[in-house]
Design a protein that fits this description.
The chain has no helices and 27 strands. The chain has 406 residues and is mainly β. The chain has 2 domains: 85 residues, no CATH class; 283 residues, Glycosyl hydrolase domain, family 43 (Tachylectin-2, Chain A, 5 Propeller). The protein has a 6-stranded antiparallel beta sheet, with no helix packed on it.
Length: 406
């Protein structure tokens, strides 16, 4: 309530915060990386929004908190001579960070591209997660495995924390795996085999594409996408194994991420998984169809989202309900000042002689207080009312020097 010239004015404040999608624009097939070298998060996606999935560039995005992302630019352009063997359809990247014995880091970026009338999988190498990446000059994988039918796309790289060996998974219409050689840019052909999860339907776990592997508490988890990427039913299922090369046992409740019709969220698939360093805290990074394009090119109007991934006590994965709210800020390095370029420079103690009311809410919409200086570290929503009757709403990062106006 506010009194102006003896007139009582009531203000109702409704706070709605939607962190998903986390990246502005059309992108898909997100690969998430936490870099030990830079102590930042990175997403490497397919560039989307182009008819026929015809994108030819790969960009990388960085973040200090999983909420605010900076476009660091193009790292590979298949329309140029950067990749001599490929001409377009730059799809479904994967990334690995490897620390060498001398303490330096190398980054291996795997991707699919057109080569004549078929898809092939290549790899480019850099010394920094933002590049520059140098293609090795030829495809890493040029031919379908014996007995397989489908496309050479959707690569995934996994470094086994037990054996320290690298493995590469790939395939649309099939799931294949091979050991990577020590150079990380070639596979051991003698280890190549098909491990496609058998059975299922489009309503549960029938394998289509996008394999991804991670390890937790002695269990190797295999996730994959079901149905077509342009379908509102596109979703994620999983199985487990005692080994990184299978065989895969389908989970009793295999579907772990599927559309949320109540929130009008559809086509949730092609995911990667992130564990916060040193914690049993997990997130799933995936794309969904932009709801405005469900009937008009849904397969190439996709956007990237992040939600929490949780486990039951027996190690099974809980079903994730896709949200628009997304996640809260994640801080691996508490001293990071969140200097992403999207913030507007300001002071922590914002003051204005014309300010009458300041209410501060947490991200759930709960009223906290009206003093910025009393806030703990985190992200808040601030609503302000001024003498002239104007109102201002902004997102406030406590204990930093940065604001962002919504």
């Amino acid at each position: 309530m506010l009194k102006l010239n003896k007139t009582v004015v009531n203000y109702n404040v409704n706070v709605s915060v939607e962190a998903n999608p986390v990246i502005e624009g059309f992108y898909a097939d997100p690969e998430i990386l936490y870099s030990e070298k830079t102590q930042k998060f990175y997403i490497y996606p397919t560039t989307d929004g182009i008819s026929g999935w015809g994108g030819y560039t790969f960009n990388v995005f960085s973040s200090s908190d999983l909420i605010h992302w900076v476009n660091e630019g193009t790292i590979l352009d298949l329309s140029t001579d950067q990749v001599s063997w490929a001409t377009g359809n730059a799809w479904a990247p994967a990334i690995a960070e490897v620390k060498e014995n001398d303490g330096t880091y190398r980054y291996f970026f795997y991707f699919s591209g057109n080569a004549g009338n078929m898809k092939k999988i290549g790899v480019a190498v850099a010394s920094d997660p933002k590049g520059p990446f140098i293609d090795i000059g030829k495809p890493m994988i040029s031919d379908l495995p014996k007995g397989a039918s489908g496309q050479l796309i959707d690569g995934d790289v996994f470094i086994d924390p037990v054996s320290k060996k690298g493995y590469f998974y790939f395939g649309n219409g099939f799931m294949a795996v091979a050991e990577l050689n020590a150079d990380m840019i070639s596979i051991n052909e003698s280890t190549l085999k098909i491990i496609t999860p058998a059975g299922g339907t489009l309503n549960d776990f029938a394998y289509r594409e996008a394999p991804y592997v991670f390890y937790r508490n002695g269990i190797y988890y295999f996730i994959w996408s079901v149905d077509d990427t342009g379908s509102d039913n596109y979703h994620i299922a999983y199985g487990t194994s005692s080994y990184p090369t299978g065989p895969i046992t389908i989970a009793a409740n295999p579907v772990i991420l599927i559309k949320n019709t109540d929130k009008k969220i559809y086509g949730t698939g092609h995911a990667s998984v992130l564990q916060i360093q040193g914690k049993d805290e997990w997130y799933i990074v995936y794309h969904r169809i932009n709801s405005k394009y469900l009937k008009n090119g849904p397969g190439y109007h996709r956007e990237i989202c992040i939600d929490k991934l949780e486990f039951n006590e027996d190690g099974t994965i809980k079903k994730t309900i896709p949200t628009r709210k997304g996640i809260d800020v994640v801080s691996v390095n508490s001293t990071d000042t969140l200097t992403n370029k999207i913030y507007i420079h300001s002071n922590n103690n914002v003051s204005d002689e014309n300010l009458i009311i300041r209410n501060i809410y947490d991200l759930s919409g709960k009223l906290i207080n009206n003093k910025l200086e009393d806030l703990a570290f985190g992200i808040y929503i601030v609503k302000e009312v001024y003498l002239d009757g104007t109102c201002k709403t902004y997102k406030y990062i406590s204990k930093t020097k940065y604001l962002r106006i919504i």
